[in-house]
């Protein structure tokens, strides 16, 4: 479209940053917290980079006041964080842990003290292990009511203070890595029938929680956050264009259509029925999904990269190749589904050390697609760059590569807004450095450097990176400084 002049971001735009409980808190057995699936999974040899765990993480459990004071210094308008289910219900159900309720209320109050809007993620991958042991966790529909009970507990405890709720973080990622590639808990490989049924259970938990929030009188905004990887056809060869459509139905719309419409995409469902992988969906389920879709307020988007789609022959690559978790560039393999698509590298884009394509335009692309397809407001709940940051002898961290990355993505986001996309918030990943799941602590994302490596025992002191001051200035000017060069 014709370029529109972008001057700054809208008034009231929520400039934010994000985190997740397991990746930052530590205190894994303190004050009555129960064991989670991740507490157990990281103890399996070979699962994480150099056997790193979240036992201590970056000790946010004891340093949250220091971290939130830094957020206030930066000028954050919103802070997205997750609640650990096992801190609230150590056994996943039964007795509430008052110390858990108190901890998150303290975080919320500390944010509000500085005028920072708390944005709460109810589930960010850490499931009470007790529910896995009891009935298989997400593999059983029994978990739906336990999740809803947990969500209602949070709504009751914090509903008067929290205006933004995210039911699930990256449902597509924790289920695919948990049941298809065995890289996340429960570590199952190529269990496609269970994978799709698990996803249906998560969808039902999301839907019932959304409806419960409204039934309890909740007037804030609620939705889910999806790890969205927009796709491009390799070229105009029809079979490659068709591979893009198939990819979108199976990898993107399968989730977003349920959130926004309350139904599964037809072509994908027909394909899965023929393969014998389709989930069991009752008529009552369909009614509940549709009712919840009418009540969500936004589409949450975690955006890191785009992908390329090319037809994949029946004897082609599989979904089960090597993922780059070491930061050794070029070690990731091309993946795909035989007979449908594969995802080769984009020759026009640079990549991170973890082989993720760097595509600022892709952020604009996904906002435009959500706006056209779903007509929903958007929250960018994650966007950021993982890199090998180094601290100098005088305690400086010069991460100009992160500044470049975020600047270019924000410029494209500004264009999307000018083109008609309603974007409520932009949350970087992440505020402090943290445990990057399988990648350990070497993959740093934060504006604030935390003094620790894979081994425990470092000071965990905080140091502001160059990007901290840059984002502080962006917030102060509502992004006007991003566009001065473009418009002059």
Secondary structure elements and pairings:
Blueprint: E1 14-18, H1 21-24, H2 37-41, H3 60-74, E2 78-82, H4 85-88, H5 98-113, E3 117-123, H6 129-135, H7 142-158, E4 164-169, H8 171-179, H9 192-215, E5 221-227, E6 231-233, H10 238-261, H11 266-275, H12 283-293, E7 299-302, E8 307-309, E9 336-337, E10 341-342, H13 360-374, E11 378-382, H14 400-418, E12 423-429, E13 448-450, E14 462-464, H15 466-476, H16 480-487
Parallel strand pairs: 1-2, 1-12, 2-3, 3-4, 4-5, 5-7, 6-8, 7-11, 11-12
Antiparallel strand pairs: 9-10, 13-14
Helix pairs in contact: 3-5, 7-9, 8-9, 9-12, 10-12, 13-14
Overview of the structural elements:
Helix 3 runs parallel beside helix 5 (98-113). This protein has helices at 21-24, 37-41, 60-74, 85-88, 98-113, 129-135, 142-158, 171-179, 192-215, 238-261, 266-275, 283-293, 360-374, 400-418, 466-476, 480-487; strands at 14-18, 78-82, 117-123, 164-169, 221-227, 231-233, 299-302, 307-309, 336-337, 341-342, 378-382, 423-429, 448-450, 462-464. A hairpin with a 3-residue loop joins strand 9 and strand 10. It has a single domain, classed as Glycosidases (TIM Barrel, Alpha-Beta Barrel), CATH 3.20.20.80. It is built from 16 helices and 14 strands. The protein has 488 residues and is of the alpha/beta class. The strands form four sheets. Strands 1-2-3-4-5-7-11-12 form an eight-stranded parallel beta barrel, surrounded by six helices. Strands 6-8 form a two-stranded parallel ribbon. The chain has a two-stranded antiparallel sheet with strand order 9-10.
């Amino acid at each position: 479209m014709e370029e529109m002049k972008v001057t700054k971001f809208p008034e009231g735009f929520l400039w934010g940053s994000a985190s997740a409980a397991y990746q930052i808190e530590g205190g894994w057995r303190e004050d009555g917290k129960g064991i989670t699936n991740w507490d157990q999974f990281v103890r399996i040899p070979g699962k994480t980079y150099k056997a790193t765990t979240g036992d201590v993480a970056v000790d946010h459990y004891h340093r949250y006041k220091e971290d939130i004071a830094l957020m206030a210094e930066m000028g954050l308008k919103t802070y997205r964080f997750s609640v650990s289910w096992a801190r609230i219900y150590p056994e996943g159900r039964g007795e509430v842990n008052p110390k858990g309720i108190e901890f998150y209320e303290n975080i919320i109050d500390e944010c509000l003290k500085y005028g920072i809007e708390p944005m709460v993620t109810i589930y960010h991958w850490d499931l009470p292990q007790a529910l896995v042991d009891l009935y298989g966790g997400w593999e059983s529909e029994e978990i739906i009511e336990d999740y809803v009970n947990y969500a209602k507990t949070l709504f009751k405890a914090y509903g008067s203070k929290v205006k933004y709720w995210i039911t699930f973080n990256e449902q597509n990622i924790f289920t695919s890595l948990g049941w298809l590639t065995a890289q996340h808990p429960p570590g199952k490989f190529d269990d496609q029938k269970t994978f799709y049924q698990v996803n249906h259970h998560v969808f039902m938990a999301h839907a019932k929680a959304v409806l419960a929030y409204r039934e309890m009188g909740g007037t804030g905004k609620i939705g889910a956050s999806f790890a969205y990887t927009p796709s491009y056809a390799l070229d105009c060869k029809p079979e490659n264009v068709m591979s893009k459509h198939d990819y979108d139905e199976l990898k993107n719309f399968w989730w977003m259509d349920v959130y926004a419409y309350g139904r599964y995409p037809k072509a994908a469902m027909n394909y899965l029925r023929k393969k014998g992988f389709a989930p069991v969906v009752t008529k009552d389920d369909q009614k509940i999904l549709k009712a919840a879709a009418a009540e969500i307020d936004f589409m949450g988007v975690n955006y890191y990269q785009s992908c390329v789609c090319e037809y994949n022959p029946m004897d082609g690559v599989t979904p089960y190749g090597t993922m780059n978790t070491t930061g050794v560039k070029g070690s990731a393999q091309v993946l795909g589904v035989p007979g449908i698509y594969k995802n080769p590298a984009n020759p026009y884009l640079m990549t991170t050390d973890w082989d993720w394509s760097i595509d600022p335009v892709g952020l604009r692309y996904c906002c435009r697609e959500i706006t056209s397809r779903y007509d929903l407001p958007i929250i960018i709940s994650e966007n950021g760059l993982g890199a090998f940051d180094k601290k100098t002898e005088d305690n400086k961290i010069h991460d100009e590569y992160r500044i470049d990355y975020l600047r270019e993505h924000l410029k494209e986001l500004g264009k999307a807004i000018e083109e008609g996309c309603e974007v409520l918030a932009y949350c970087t990943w992440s505020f402090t450095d943290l445990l990057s799941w399988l990648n350990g602590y070497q993959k740093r994302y934060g504006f604030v450097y935390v003094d620790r490596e894979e081994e425990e025992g470092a000071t965990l002191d905080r140091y502001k990176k160059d990007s901290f001051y840059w984002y502080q200035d962006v917030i102060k000017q509502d992004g006007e400084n991003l566009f001065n060069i473009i418009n002059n």
